């Protein structure tokens, strides 16, 4: 078989593989529903530092705050109503934080606010919450320089985040291990196809020169 024919066949195979990967990506994307940044209320807690003790404090406050807010919005179906309820209870959230810090014997500063806060992309089942600005309760503990924790307060999805573990910002860790793996696999497959194609072409031309 002539080298040009082999090259043509290999190129056709390469195009088919690339097309198949693209169609697979589209099929996976079609299974996920993207949620507008205006359709959710979120929670973000910034720990004082990455020290084990500061991270433990963050989790204690997370549990108490989430438990309280969940009771306020469980029977609410309207976003604006949920927003009003949470805003009205900001002083109570401040009290919860103060009580928890006192229980832990800490004289640490803190700040609680309800405003627009930047969040990275997050996947909950088949729901994709894209990166962007969300209405959120922001709790800053001490200097707020430690790993932060976030979740969706409305609709209530914080329990899913607690089950999945800690969350960190996109510029510090792109995602959880389970979310990273598919992307890595796609990259490895793509490089494998390219390397295979280049290797075969090199062999063909080498044999032709001999």
Automatic annotation (TrEMBL):
Pfam families: Spore_II_R (PF09551). This is Stage II sporulation protein R.
